[in-house]
Amino acid sequence: MYRMKQTIIILILILILTLTSCVRTEKQETLLLADREAPLGWVYLRVYKDKTFEFESRGLERRGDIYEGIVEVRNDTIFFQYVDSVPKAGNKAILTENFVSYFSGEYPERLEIKKNVLKTE
Hints:
Elements: H1 2-21, E1 30-38, E2 41-48, E3 52-59, E4 65-74, E5 77-82, E6 92-95, E7 99-102, E8 109-116
Antiparallel strand pairs: 1-2, 1-8, 2-3, 3-4, 4-5, 5-6, 6-7, 7-8
């Protein structure tokens, strides 16, 4: 009886592990990737096809602070609508051929563009 319970528990655990490993996490297509090396880490900007974005400030030893929201591009200006708090870089940036330059925050932030297929209006 005890051996049967052990076998059932093991089978249930194997089933749970199999099902959880099969869960797919879809990676969103990025339209804009920009970053820069910071004194103690990196700063990243990722804009996705569904007009959402992530602005991440990452240290060397930890994941970092991620600010998320929705982006709107008008002419050469990017407007960031944050879900929660706004990073010190601000909520507006100028988009050039090679850089995203924030200008409305406590300090200017300039990220080098690695990929850009954003369509401006």
